[in-house]
Each structure stands twice: as C-alpha cells, then as structure tokens.
Amino acid sequence: MRALPQTKNMDCYVLTRSKTEKKDGVTFYNGSLPELIRSIKAKPGKNIYCDGGAEIVKLFMEHDLIDTYIISIIPVILGDGKRLFRGGIQGFSLSAEPPKYFESGLVQLRYERKKE
Questions:
Q1: Most distant CA pair in the chain: distance in Å?
Q2: Domain assignments of the chain as residue spans, ordered by start
Q3: 109 CB contacts (<8 Å, ≥6 apart)?
Q4: What is the number of other CB atoms lying within 10 angstroms of the CB of residue 57?
C-alpha cells in the first residue's frame, strides 16, 4: 500500500475485519465503530469525514453516527452501478441545503440529519 495524500493532513482509518498493523499513516480498525468515533471526537480537530460504499454507510447509519450526508452526482452514465444505501435501517428526516454546482458538471447535494 502506498501512502495516501490525506495522511499528511489528517488521521486516516480503514474499517476492516482482520487485524492489521498501522501502515503508511493509515490505522486499520476492526473494533466497535461507536467506540472509534467517540475516541476520534475526543481528540482536537473538526469534522470526521467518511468515504465508502453502501455497506460502510449502513454501518454508520445503524449507530446514528452521520450528521451530514454529502452526495455527489458525477455526470457519467455507467449503465450499472452500486446502491447508495442498503435497506434494513429505521427511517429518519433530513433537511436539504442548496446544491453546489461545479464546472466539471458535478453536482453536490448536502443534507443535515434532523435530530428528533
């Protein structure tokens, strides 16, 4: 694995099912997700950024660990793709912010989780 550019600016974690030692600035984690988030929030800094597919997003959603959803729409038709969200979670409400448009054609949608 080659060092990721993000590791120069922030702590990086990869959720994994196996025990792997920290490498090239990346911590591989296979413990309790809520415990990991609590420990990260206890450190100085700002937001936690999570990037991943529907499986990772569902894991965070099951533990109510996402405050803001940022969904980027890239103007490429793949013909077949992957789901953004998996089923099996309790529904909840979001509030939309104005979309951001980029010269590339990318549109970014931002939703804040409504705490009830």
A1: 43
A2: 1-49, 65-116
A3: 69, 70, 71, 72, 73, 96, 99
A4: 19
pLDDT tens for 86-113 read 888 888 899 999 999 999 999 999 999 9
Whether 40 and 48 have beta carbons less than 8 Å apart is answered as yes
Angle at 47 between CA 43 and CA 53, to 5 degrees: 115
Question: Could you give the residue ranges of the DSSP H alpha helices within 17-78?
Answer: 33-41, 54-62
Count CB neighbours of 70 within 10 A.
13
pTM over 0.85: no
Cα(60)–Cα(50) distance, integer angstroms: 9
